[in-house]
């Protein structure tokens, strides 16, 4: 009889995407068993922080691997469940959501839970950077602020499920004329920025809101955020930046953009009555002022290393 098999816990959101994981759960469990993990499953509930609470419980119970199946929100919760623990399990991701920014960055197959689970068979992992905000909230892809980023909160989840990314595009087009600048002070590794900005992106990967060129030189493991400040609020300027971003990341040299690398930053709005709402991995995280910091190589993720560009990794790379 086999003893000492490693244990894995699959935490899945049954309502994510088109409920695709429900149809594939048995096959996904078979793949994990074949790889050598004794695997059990947990279905998230509508209770707040359901995935986060279960991830923390499983990690403390000594599970060696936690697999998050769902959208970016589910993976964010799982990360928040384990990130502050001393002994952290390895993590894997089965993307079944609408935008799946993190899956794009890690080159995990989307819309096919069995193919995503098979990535674990390849046994390729990277120790990934994550971000921390307010000293206690963790994010894996982006912290963002500005009128356009607030649209995430106003697209109903059933519309997101039905229309996917088109829901954001439609809402974004509607909100473009409403964008306004706010005076900010941002302290970062290289100094201080003071001035008017309309949008702030603090990215950990190159895939932000479905754009894979917003931070074209982002590395997954170098201990740095990519800070992007958009200084204009004019509709034509914004459209120009979007076109440049889609056209090979040319926006990074535009005069309306500040673009730099930093391991930490503090953001405050100089008009205290009009703070920015901070968007962490697509969900509301809190208001400014806020300090953000990178935790370098903090979590070990199973990834599709064969598909990840060498440019996305620092010299050390993955395992």
UniProtKB/TrEMBL annotation:
GO molecular function: ATP binding; ATP-dependent diacylglycerol kinase activity; metal ion binding
SMART domains reported in the protein's UniProt record: DAGKc (SM00046)
Listed Gene3D superfamilies: 2.60.200.40, Probable inorganic polyphosphate/atp-NAD kinase, domain 1
GO-annotated cellular components: plasma membrane
Keyword Lipid biosynthesis: yes
Xref: SUPFAM superfamilies: NAD kinase/diacylglycerol kinase-like
InterPro entries: ATP-NAD_kinase_N, Diacylglycerol/lipid_kinase, Diacylglycerol_kinase_cat_dom, Lipid_Phosphate_FormReg, NAD/diacylglycerol_kinase_sf, YegS/DAGK_C
Source superkingdom: Bacteria
One Gene Ontology biological process: phospholipid biosynthetic process
Domain DAGKc: 3-137
Cofactor(s) needed for function: Mg(2+)
Keyword field: ATP-binding, Kinase, Lipid biosynthesis, Lipid metabolism, Magnesium, Metal-binding, Nucleotide-binding, Phospholipid biosynthesis, Phospholipid metabolism, Transferase
The family this protein is said to belong to: Belongs to the diacylglycerol/lipid kinase family.
Name the UniProt record assigns to this protein: Diacylglycerol kinase
Lineage start: Bacteria, Bacillati, Bacillota, Bacilli, Lactobacillales
